[in-house]
Specification:
Helix content is 40%, strand content 16%. The chain is of the alpha/beta class and 461 residues long. A seven-stranded mixed beta sheet has the order 4-10-9-8-7-5-6, with helices on both faces. Strand 14 (429-431) and strand 15 form a beta hairpin. The structure holds pyridoxal-5'-phosphate.
Length: 461
């Protein structure tokens, strides 16, 4: 026998219960009314003899529903996966100066598209173009929402209903279903594959170039490498060939960077200025990969091509907002001074952190974690990576904590979940029945320690 539905109190009765006023003050009467209805509905669904149908119980349930509605599902986490530019974890952390710049323009009106000198309508690209041109040597520059959008826009602007030539070795999938052949079809360009998977020569491109060609494209194979018996055409040779036939060369650098990362002990990654110097007409790259800025797709190149891109009506649909412009402008400014670059761009600072620093941090944290967990905690060597297809070949020596709880695989899974349920979730990596926290990504050590007592016993929220 179940309790009758009539046992469930009315919404009005619950709203008169002690504690309702406080919830109304915090969330508003409308929201509380909705939450009480929801709580009553939930109760009706699994009503049994044991159900507590008192006003206080329903109000309590409504309070929990309200708390759920009020909390954002998007929140900061500790990325201790060892992949610094993790696409699923929001890629590059922004410098505080960039966040301040976003707050400044976000709070009110700005001259986003207003020419202050002339007193009339302006162009949002002007805020970034000077900096991008000075840093890369380009004649012109424009920016869209992300690099996928930049590739789509370049292809649509420069190769609509014409052939776009790409080496078969560069027909890549980036992840998140971004595939060069698919994006090309959607952009309205006709893919013409050139050469073979492992070897493509200048003469292959020469044979494919013809009256139907609109564009030659080169793609940085971000997330994989071809090894062994291989050949690819150098950007310089491809540019010369394309120009002989009167068509532009577009280089999708993927991550791309504006600095020689070898100066900071990091592996080499092609720069936008190198691609331009080699003759590329347009070069595109991401704002939030190795550049360390906000999500954006940056295009630099010659004035004629960039102008064609800018005049494409699709540009309007892909443009960046004022906050992105503010943050990107700030980050680009840091590239003007290579000496302080790594200190000021958090993504680069994390990638360049010396292993000894990370080891020392691991040694500080190991006994603390040992104290709160019923598990063995060891300092171990790790291999971090840049992520997002940046520096694809390279593993960066790092250090971290290997946590092995008693109770095997199931206990490790449960422990990883407890870390993910912390107020600021901690995301590690489970491998071979051990939870590994690669500490290369840990900037806020105090914040990490401060919430560890939530891990003990049932104290997990
Ligand atoms: C990452 C990447 C893209 C997509 O860039 P997003 O900024 O993620 O949109 C495109 N091309 C290449 C080669 C990439 O590595």
């Amino acid at each position: 026998m179940n309790k009758p539905r009539s046992a469930i109190p009315s919404v009005d009765a619950v709203l008169r219960a002690p504690g309702a006023e406080a919830l109304i003050e915090g969330h508003g009467r409308t929201a509380l009314t909705d939450a009480v209805r929801q709580a009553a509905e939930d109760l009706r669904h699994d009503l049994s003899d044991d159900s507590d149908t008192g006003e206080a119980a329903v109000l309590n349930a409504a309070g929990e529903i309200l708390a759920g509605w009020a909390s954002s599902s998007l929140k900061p986490v500790f990325n201790l996966t060892g992949t610094i530019l993790h696409t699923n974890l929001g890629r590059a952390p922004l410098p505080p100066e960039a966040i301040e710049a976003m707050a400044r323009v976000g709070a009110g009106a700005s001259n986003l598209e207003y020419d202050l000198a002339a007193g009339r309508r302006g162009d949002r690209d002007v805020h970034l173009e000077d900096r991008l041109c000075r840093l890369t040597g380009a004649e012109a520059a424009t920016v869209v929402n992300n690099n996928a959008a930049a590739v789509l826009l370049c292809l649509n602007s420069l190769a609509l209903r014409r052939e776009a030539l790409v080496s078969r070795g560069e027909l890549i999938e980036i992840g998140g279903s971004f595939r060069i052949p698919d994006i090309m079809a959607r952009a309205g360009a006709r893919l013409r594959e050139v050469g073979t998977t492992n070897r493509t020569h200048t003469k292959d491109f020469a044979a494919a170039l013809g009256p139907k060609t609109g564009l030659v494209m080169q793609v940085h194979t971000s997330n994989y490498t071809i090894q062994g018996f291989t050949a690819a055409v150098a950007t310089r040779d491809l540019a010369a060939l394309a120009h002989d036939h009167g068509v532009p060369l577009f280089v999708d650098l993927g991550s791309g960077t504006l600095a020689d990362l070898r100066a900071y002990g990091l592996p080499y990654e092609p720069t936008a200025q190198e691609a331009l110097a080699a003759g590329a007409d347009v070069v595109s790259f991401s704002g939030d990969k190795l550049l360390g800025g906000p999500q954006a797709g940056i295009m630099v190149g010659n004035a004629e091509c960039i102008d064609r891109i800018r005049r494409n009506p699709m540009k309007r649909a892909l443009r960046v907002d004022k906050m992105t412009i503010a943050a990107l402008h700030t980050v680009l400014g840091f590239y003007g001074d290579p000496d302080s670059l790594v200190e000021r761009v958090p993504a680069l600072r994390l990638l360049a952190r010396p292993k000894a620093d990370i080891q020392a941090q691991a040694a500080r944290l190991a006994p603390i974690l040992d104290g709160v967990l019923d598990a063995t905690v060891d300092v171990v060597d790790c291999q971090s990576q840049a992520g997002s297809g940046s520096l694809p070949d390279s593993e960066i020596p790092s250090a971290g904590l290997a946590i092995s709880p008693k109770g095997g695989k199931r206990a490790v899974k449960a422990l990883a979940e407890r870390f993910r349920r912390l107020p600021v979730p901690v995301i590690g990596r489970v491998q071979d029945g051990i939870l590994v926290l690669d500490l290369r990504g840990l900037d806020d050590e105090a914040g990490f320690i401060a919430q560890l007592d939530h891990l003990t016993g049932d104290g997990v929220p």
